Fold this protein.
Amino acid sequence: MRAQTLGMTMSSMPTSRKRNNNSRRTKILVSILGFLCLSVALSSCSRTPKNNADSSPNAESAPLVSALDDQQLAHVKECNGRRVSSEQPVDLMIMQDGKLQPFAILQPGQLVQLKEISDPDLITSSYLPLDRMDQEGGAQVLIDALQVTPSGSWLNPTNHLLERDFAVKLKAGTRMKNDWDETILTTSTEQTWLVYAEKEEAYGVELQGRIVWVDKSQAEETLERSGTAEMAATSLPVLMYHFFYSEADGQSRDNVNDVEVEEFREQLQALQDRGYVALTMREVEMMMKGWADVPEKAVAITIDDGDPTVYQYAYPVLKDFGYNATLFLITGWMNPQLPYEFFQMREDGLELQSHSFLMHQGGCKAGHGGRLLCVDSEEGVKDTRQSLDYVDGGFVYCYPFGDVNDHAVEILKEAGVQLAFTTEYGKIKPGMDLYRLPRIRVTGGAGLDRFIKSVE
């Protein structure tokens, strides 16, 4: 079974848990009994480190506040089940032997997901548990809700990568970083974590459904374990959609790229019934670069152009099934600021990536006329970077009209693109050219049997 939390320890995995017994100020007195009752009713956990560079000013003395006034209690309840962050470093704590112990330090501006306590009347302490971070024995990782602010973001990601056959024991003070090399949290103790990905200088471990990276130099040792029995994929179907319509709304198909919304629902139902998961582009990247394994039953869903019918018809269906999808946007055709509809879809897990800024138009004689084939290199790099910036951290590109040549590939490499998709038919496999990746076009009205055959 896949472990889902920080420092996941299993009975079969050796682990070292030296805890720092520094107690915080002495406001712990009246609350311990009531807090322990709360802990039984909750369920979730995590970790945090301590080092001089990252330590929170309160790391030595975090009180367990139970005598909350009405305003404090209202704030704590507002944080319940939400993603939260702080402008200052915040200690994550763990209850051990009736005492709060330092676990890790959440860095400024970084988000963590809190577990939802179904009955808010059970909340009597300012400390709330983090989601998907349970420790051995059911201990929970906690955060003082009075030190954080609820975020408008509701995204709660899911990791689809397969566990590796080893874990790493990390030093206290290990920094866990995201894909942009930003530190999310720093461990306060020695901790053992399952490994899901590995690149040259770092291990990928799971933090609340996302992969974060730890430098290999921070691993005191690696610990062998059985890993997962699930088969890893050797190829991946990347599905390509464009437009959607609804017969119930009196609409009809104009061309093969139009997929009726109930047909789309039927396709996703077929995937779910057969046990398929939908990968993020980061997961696709890690598979293609040999950093991680993905399940044998996996797909990636892409939708080109950013047509309004995506929000109207496809987005609600994707939400119903909890599937990821990637929208390739022609960003120069959009408002200077990301429209609300796309912001909302991104918050619900749909990824936004580049379909160019203003290259999706004629201008070149080759192919279908996409400008990237013959545009000046400097202009092409500028256009590509502008589109990646618009989608806020983009790293994947979809060629306008599917047109690609060596000149276009060099432009994308210089602009920092990591993966690029064409409209050529086929599944992707590790070892392929990362800048000429094929996809499987989903045509409207082709029938469910053909769809399933194209995936399997």
Observations:
- The two ends are 24 Å apart (CA to CA).
- The chain has a mean pLDDT of 86.
- Residues 1-227 form one domain.
